[in-house]
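Hi support team,

I submitted a single chain yesterday and got back a structure, but I'm not sure I'm reading the token output correctly. Could someone confirm the output below corresponds to the sequence I sent? I've pasted both exactly as they appear in my results page.

Thanks,
R.
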Amino acid sequence: MEQLIRELNVPANQGAPERINEIQKQIQQLQRDKSAWQLGLDFLQHDESIIRFYGALTLTVKINADWDVDSVGSDDAMKKCLLEALIANFVRLTLAGDAGFVLQKICSTLTALKSRLGLYWHYPVRHVLTCMVSQQFAQQPISSDENQPTSITQYATPVQL
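Hi R., thanks for writing in. Yes, this is the structure output for that exact sequence:
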């Protein structure tokens, strides 16, 4: 898929709509494969921003189209792994100053994930902010009283406060 993504973005192909359509169809077919969950996560680690973008895009496609088909919705371990990986990559790439289009796509992927996780993911904005402050993935900041989230400040250093 990497080669197809690069080929899609070659300036010489921009004047060949039939080739662009062919490449897009091939990419979309690969994105629907069950192995694309891991491929999307792997692409988020890539050196090239366009490949990272397609990693997030692939995960968005999988969440929206194959959540139930691939039984992710009934697999708590997979949901937890996906949530942790997406947030950890978002934090890492944000702190590294990654391209805005990549970060925006990861945010849209997190939004798609939230729509599928429902109550599994309490306080998503607070959770992502907590991870940003701690500069790594942190478990969901939920207190023993489920209606009262814990303070984000417990993850901050005095300098960050």
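A quick pointer for reading it: The chain is about 60% helix and 0% strand. Let us know if anything else looks off.

Best,
Support desk
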